[in-house]
Write a structure and sequence with these properties.
The complex is a heterotrimer of chains A (about 350), B (about 280) and C (about 325).
Chain A lengths: L2 E5 L3 H6 L5 E8 L2 E7 L17 H4 L3 E7 L5 E2 L10 E6 L1 H15 L5 H8 L1 E6 L25 E5 L3 E6 L2 H9 L4 E2 L3 H13 L13 H7 L5 H5 L8 H4 L7 E8 L2 E8 L20 H20 L9 H5 L6 H9 L2
Parallel strand pairs in A: 2-6, 6-7, 7-8
Antiparallel strand pairs in A: 1-9, 1-10, 2-3, 4-5, 4-12, 8-9, 11-12
Chain B lengths: L8 E10 L7 E8 L2 H6 L7 E6 L3 E6 L10 E6 L3 H8 L5 E8 L12 E7 L3 H13 L7 E7 L8 H9 L1 H5 L2 E7 L9 E2 L2 H8 L6 E6 L2 H13 L7 E4 L15 E2 L2 E2 H4 L2 E3 H4 L7
Parallel strand pairs in B: 7-8, 7-11, 8-9, 9-10, 11-12
Antiparallel strand pairs in B: 1-2, 1-6, 2-5, 3-4, 3-6, 12-15, 13-14
Helix pairs in contact in B: 6-7
Chain C lengths: L2 H14 L2 E9 L6 E6 L20 H5 L3 H4 L8 E6 L1 H12 L8 E5 L8 H7 L6 E7 L2 E6 L2 E6 H4 L2 H4 L11 E2 L12 H8 L2 H12 L7 H5 L24 H13 L10 H5 L6 H16 L27
Parallel strand pairs in C: 1-3, 3-4, 4-8
Antiparallel strand pairs in C: 1-2, 5-6, 6-7
Helix pairs in contact in C: 11-13
Classes of the chains: A alpha+beta (about 350), B alpha/beta (about 280), C alpha/beta (about 325).
Bound molecules: flavin-adenine dinucleotide (FAD) and FE2/S2 (inorganic) cluster.
Chain lengths: ~350, ~280, ~325
Amino acid sequence: MEHFLLEKNRLNEFLSALRNYEVFAPVRKVGLTVFELITNPKEAMLDLKNQPQSPKRVIFPQSEILLVFDKNNAAKEPKGRVGQKPQVVFGVRPCDARGFHMLDPVFEREYPDPYYLQKRQSTLLVGFHCSEPYPNCFCTSVGGNPSSPEGLDILLTDLGEQYFLEVITSKGEQVAKEGAAVLSSPTSQQQTEKEKLSGMAPQKIRRTIDTEGIASKIEKHFDHSLWRELSGKCISCGICTYTCPTCHCFDIQDERVRGRANRLRIWDSCMFPEYTLHASGHNPRPTRTERLKNRMYHKFKQNIDLYGVPGCVGCGRCITLCPENVDLVANLKVIKNL
Amino acid sequence: MTENPYLPRRAKIESIKQETTGERIIKTFAVVIEDQAYRERFQHKPGQCAMLGINGVGESMISIASSPTNKEFLNFSVMKLGKVTSAIHELEAGDLITIRGPYGNNFPLDEWYQKNIITIGGGIGQAPLRSIIQYVLDKKGEFGGLDIIYGARTTADLCYREDHFQTEQSVFWQRRNVRVHLSIDVPEAGWDRFVGVVPDNLLRLKPSPENAIAITCGPPVMIKFVIKNLLALGFKDEQIYTTLENRMKCGIGKCGRCNVGSFYVCKDGPVFSYARLKNLPEKG
Amino acid sequence: MDKEKLVNEAKAVFSREDVACLIGYGKDSIGFRVSPIFIRTRDEADQLFFSPLCSLSLVNYLTLEKGVLLEGNKETGGEKIAIVARGCDSRALIQLFAERGIPREQVVILGVPCRGTIDLKKIEGKFPDARNCTEVTEAEGMYYIRFDNESHEVPKEELLADHCKHCAFPNPLVYDVLLEDLVDSKGAAYSDIEEMEKMALEERHEYWKDKFARCLRCYACRNACPLCYCDDCILERVSPQWVNRSVNLSENLMFHLARSYHLAGRCAGCGECERVCPVNLPLMLLNRKLEKDIKNIFEYTAGSNLDDKPLFASFNPKDPNDFIF
Ligand SMILES: Cc1cc2nc3c(=O)[nH]c(=O)nc-3n(C[C@H](O)[C@H](O)[C@H](O)COP(=O)(O)OP(=O)(O)OC[C@H]3O[C@@H](n4cnc5c(N)ncnc54)[C@H](O)[C@@H]3O)c2cc1C
Ligand code: FES
């Protein structure tokens, strides 16, 4: 696909040219970098390093109304789901873009999920080559790469004064057209420079794990006493799942607010005991041990069985943000060495 | 865009029958889907379930307790437990309920041609078995014998009592090799059938594994011992079927919670042969 | 702290008492991180350590999954749990004993006088690339930090966890073994709360609105809290449902108000809720505001006295009743 050059000082103009889109970008709010709808391009904070949450929520929000119930309690789809403005998410890390690739089959297959798919199809992902990975990044161990275009529509690489802009998909091409006024052609030198940066990127990843054979190890040692030890520190909170770019589990709840009832879907976490609690009181995963094991099973066995790839993009958030340092990579190594 | 799988349809409750008066109340609802097109599309097979719901309250996965050979209505037997099931119990004949489905896999009845069928149920677990029983009775020529082994804690907890008594007493069905074996866990005045738990009744009856299929549904402990006893009686893994239950929300393999190993019970289950079940890492 | 002393005392506890598990601090493999470790035998005690990096509280593990820790030492049939506890942790323990969350006889306390702990977010922010921290010590208002091949001096104020700045109980108030000499304590100070109280109501509302809108409702604050151990938690009850599951400002506000009110007169000030929060909510401001008010109204400070009854389980004729209309 086509390559362009975007002068850094014209980035705002480029964003302004995307008039027909709702633009989501990382913004700094109360000391956190979060993806939000921006109205002024100046709000965008291109701090790739410090994103405690992936842009998953732009397409799969934490709470989303599925149905609204009218006065007669008849169910209707909420207004505004159809005919939404196309969206651009700007400043996506390559691992997070791959995260959408992992979510896609869940929502596409068998019973296509209109809520996710609609937003997914009308959202364009503009990513950045990740030149400074986090200390806990391990994307290269799970099929990713800090400069991978997989899942992105446009990939930008920071060349210092300019961005090297690669159009990956036809959706991306459309956006490049709209912003064409501020784009120029890269020189062959810049092309080489970009390739050099991409080549160097994987070496900056510090943590690695050979995931080959992990699935069968998890299966084989399912009843091993070691799981108990691995989960000893876990406090059953939802941080690992809520910050994960590939976790998709949700709860469905009917809620009444000021007399109006809605049916919502809300992220849920397999780390919570209630997640599997039956109405009878029976719980097939009563302790942290079964729950932590299930999470690793889901990511590194079930996902491979269902979709052929591990359900993990190696973004390292679950490690970095775990308040008790439950370390997925370390745990995988323990299982691997069993 | 394709149709919204979360959108439930309205169904009318034609009649309600209270099955049990024990500690856990079970009511059987006969419902008819209002929308004709959806009704016609709703072609279930024994073993499948549907999401029953009340808008503004929630939804619950419930087994379809009637056979597809019954074209008039769908039966659901609901045990009153929590938020949704309690609200469903408040409804009366003529009220509306919502439904979406049918969901899940089914008992492979097509593969059981001319086989002897043995159903072994406990408590509310008889609901999915009832759809097999009705189906086999309606298509008796396609199957061999039918043994219905069913038990509950007390007589007040037995579901489908009249149906079972009628079939048990019927000379017509006896001639066609249909037998009913009821039991209760603790003795009661006037009860002249077996007293003891279902797995024990099974051992006493000793059904032959010859050309037979055994299907068991009920509380997890009961299933565990029934399977153990079936194996002891010489049944092969492939001859034993059961259903699994897990907490469910979406019913369509997306919300993630109902997995057992790599399967989602809502979509790849609830029916599992023991051959398949045996290889699953967690068993509920 | 002298590692040898800690390890020897821990081993002595194993020899002396019938201990199934000792919960202490261990160095983690990454950067500045410290993890809870669960020592089951005398020999494993060598892994223990303590430094200003030990900012987490271990007390919540006592109640997280009932009985699990006691199961550990099957051979000896151990019946006690030993725990390394700082001043705030000892308050949490006292509160737990008073509430009968766990019997005093079941816990062996290795008390650590604490000079305040380092906020991991702050030190990681300052040295993001540190791989292996070998030592952090403190002297005269400075932290001496060594990692990889570097050594740094950082003023204590820069890295100290916020809630430690206001700590009035650095010394363990209950212990079986004291691991170091007691340190000076400053007495209660609420300058941060007084600042907040100066804000106009509207302003305060805006301040919290912005914060609560970020909450992920991950329950980490509740689960890390040593005093949130109810079997049936109001925050996740279904019938009646006090807090809806949906994540938005109004429900989040309800969530946090319910959480902090249930800790009124109970919070031990360990700062765990704030430490674990992935979106940096200043939850200790709520807890400390309640602590301050309760101190003023009832002359009561949770976990400060082994003989105190829980505030809301005791009645004093002198209690103010101006809330009754
Ligand atoms: C495949 C399958 C078939 C079932 N068939 C029947 C049946 O024929 N008759 C019957 O009475 N019950 C059946 N159940 C169980 C029934 O779904 C639950 O008892 C019911 O959902 C409880 O809902 P509640 O709102 O009353 O309880 P609450 O405790 O208020 O539960 C809240 C929500 O959690 C979920 N949930 C809780 N427990 C279960 C559970 N055991 N299984 C699935 N979801 C749960 C539901 O979404 C429910 O709405 C079946 C379950 C499964 C999985
Ligand atoms: S109920 Fe949602 S995945 Fe099965």
